[in-house]
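Reopening this ticket.

The earlier resolution said the output was attached, but the attachment link was broken on my side. Pasting everything inline this time so it's all in one place.
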Amino acid sequence: METPLAPRQLVLALDHAVSFAREDFLSGPSNATALALIERWPDWPNRTMVLVGPQGAGKSHLATIWAEASGARVLSAKRLADADLPAAFATGALVVEDLESAGLDERALFHLINMAREEAAYVLFTARTAPAAFPVGIRDLASRLRALPSVALSPPDDVLLRALIVKLASDRQIAVDETLVNYLANRIERSFAAAYAAVARLDEEAMRQHRPVTRALAAELFREP
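Inline output:
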């Protein structure tokens, strides 16, 4: 194992560069099926697929990898009503990010799904919950949503959680050692959101106190009750 660099002493509150390149995707049992789906395209069981998983699970990263491979355009689900769908389907592939039932424009989504069929286009939705369970009022839309195949991303295992902590720290230009990573992994919820929150909290507190990010700082912030 390579010896990590010494932790930084001070940092500036700059935007954090996050890479969505294929080589930077952290794979593990929790996302293996979803990654396999992306990598087997265009050999999909259906031209429209849904990636379902919690915040931070890697749905957008996988969607970006697929968009790069397929030439897909990317559209926010919140902008469906305003979207120029013929233009969105110009490449024959489309990513629709963050589909959720709250505030959903049912007619716009119904129109999109129908147009995708007519154009024989590929569509990849990302969502935190399976669209099949959305309480929609348009009966034909409900039927179409139930028919959409979905692939779930589950919470990370211990190995992936530790790797995620290292990557999140690297995105913030923080060098961490194995002791700190293990300490955090053993004291936070085993979820992507908890890892993001823990690393952000460490980073922000280190900046506030003008201290390095160390196990000692982590022990102060994440003491067991």
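Reporter confirms the inline version is readable. The CA atoms of residues 17 and 195 lie 17 Å apart. The two ends are 33 Å apart (CA to CA).
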